[in-house]
Amino acid sequence: MRTSRRLVGLALVLVLALTLFGVAAPATAQDPKVLVIGWEQEPELLSPRVDMTFGTLLTNFYGRGVWDWYGDYTIFPIMVEEIPTFDNGLVKTLENGNTQVTYTLKEGIKWSDGEPITADDLMFYHEMQMNPAAFTFQRGSYPDVVESVEKVDDRTVVLTYNQPYPDFQSSNILFGAWALPQHLFADMLAADGNIDNHPYFSGEGVVGYGPYVLSEWRVGEGMTFDRNEYWDGQAPAFDQVIVRFIEDTQQMVNAMRAGEIDIAFNFPDPQVADYESIEGVEVFGTPGVYGDAIWMNLRPDKTHPALLDVNVRKAIVHAIDRATLAEQLVGPGTELAKSWFSAKFLPEDFPFLEYDPDLAKQMLDEAGWVDSNENGTRDKDGMELILRWFTTNRQIRMDYQVAIQGYLDEVGVGTQLYPVPSGLLFADFLERGILDTGDFDMALFALSTDALSPAANAPDWFGCEGIPSAENPNGNNGWGFCDPRFDELDLLVLSTVDPEERLALAQEEYQHFFDGQFWHGLYLRPTWYAVAADRVTIPDKNLIGTYVANYFANVEFFTPAN
Fold first, then answer.
1. What domains are defined for the chain?
2. Beta bridge pairs of residue 523
3. Can you spell out the DSSP letters for 378-431?
4. Half-sphere exposure in the Cβ direction for 411 (13 Å, CA)
5. Angle at which helices 182-192 and 119-130 cross, to 10°
6. For FRET with 194, which of 257, 347, 408, 456 sits at 20 to 30 Å CA-CA?
7. Cα-Cα-Cα-Cα dihedral sign, residues 491, 493, 498, 501
């Protein structure tokens, strides 16, 4: 249940964020049966209508997938009886070479409203995947690689790919099945042909499959999750989980110091010492899958004309001393990501644009961007080279913005800095999100890669067909990268079984991504956790997930310390 209306529009959102910033949730972290977690971003809507990380993370409390991975990438079943493999006969290669996977749901599992979870729910999810007109959400490569899903009985479906598909486990293609209970959405679909405006996504009557159920959403303040009486897994040790929305990183530290939250996570390296200085707080990190990066908009109808020139984009990056910034703003030894793709799939000699301000100036001169009016900013054909640069109001990102603004000033490139609430930056096209609508020139944020697969699922994030528009609101490629050969290679990577051949195709794909010069890594960050050890025990750090957005996928195993 939501207890306040959401406001639409940049001005109103900013006012709301400032007005409610840091307001405490009614419960405190002193209640031994209540777990309070600091949450740095608030989504506009619930997943899967919103694809921002902190929206997806919320599902860890009230929704689980068919399977998941522990922190060491060991896979384990959740909704299904067992993980499909070739050895147990649940995965087959058909005569035409296509991969076929059988999913068998556990017997007797129920949604949080007591309704049984059946194969019909999986079939409904498949229907939503294949019908973009019915629902706006991230589909990845699903419609391109899935041939059919057939119901065998009330607990079993068989998914057949239209090609060999080596990522049948890692992509977890039915991962979101929990999110769309058929009995909840079928009537609206039948009546309207679309479920985008279902009250579920605004927090009303949320039904899921997880240890908790969403009981209240206090906009700008927090969410409350209560025990799910129909959950058949490990009974949670905490009766209630509260997430408090605290977007300011220093205020998060203060809340931990004051005992107002039990867990903080995802904070930047420079704040590790702040948390370690708090008595009774345990701090630990896990390998990161998120790396903040500069993203440049390539859409001709949206971006600054200068960014349509690849040499201008390269010059901008040559002007920035990324290594020094990582050392100073993040910490000594911070890794600079060479590519959006996982480093384990990259060739050793993968290129990286080094800091070279003289080369940056030369390239800008050659591109025709010169300071003709001697005001310190380059111009061309009467247009000043001033870029609109957006990020969230996470402190380290704002620090990076200011520092990089100084570097770009030195070569005559101006920037207008716009730190905005994360919900506004990451909202989807229909909610007028800045990224999806392409209303920016540069942006600074993190988008995780798949640590288990070399593929990119190009159609959604990087494919030509993934550029959002009124006709295609489901896309997430708001920066407009479009390289037909990249798309072709990614589809080949998805279907190639031979490991060596697959890696060679992937590395060619990565070169095309690099040649686009729209993504440039700033740093690869570990995921840090601070836990009030006198109130909360995490018996095994392996319970903290490291696979994209499953950090609290085993929260039911967390226990009160006393």
1. 10-43+210-288+527-560 (3.40.190.10), 67-186 (3.90.76.10), 289-524 (3.10.105.10)
2. 292
3. -EETTEE-EEEEEEES-HHHHHHHHHHHHHHHHTT-EEEEEEE-HHHHH--GGG
4. 27
5. 40
6. 456
7. positive
CB 551 within 8 A of CB 58: no
- Between CA 287 and CA 85 the distance in angstroms is 27
pLDDT score for 548: 61
> Do strands 34-39 and 536-537 pair parallel, antiparallel, or not at all (unpaired)?
unpaired
List the Cα angle 323/328/333 in 5-degree steps: 60
Query: pTM of the predicted model, to two decimals?
Result: 0.76
Query: Which tokens is 130 given?
Result: 């294949």
Q: What is the dihedral sign for C-alpha 224, 228, 233, 235?
A: positive
End-to-end C-alpha distance for the chain, whole angstroms: 31
pLDDT tens column, 402-442:
999 999 999 999 999 999 998 899 998 988 999 999 999 99
Q: Which two tokens stand for residue 345?
A: 């799939």
- Give dist(CA 460, CA 289) in Å, integer: 19
C-alpha dihedral sign at 36, 42, 44, 48:
negative
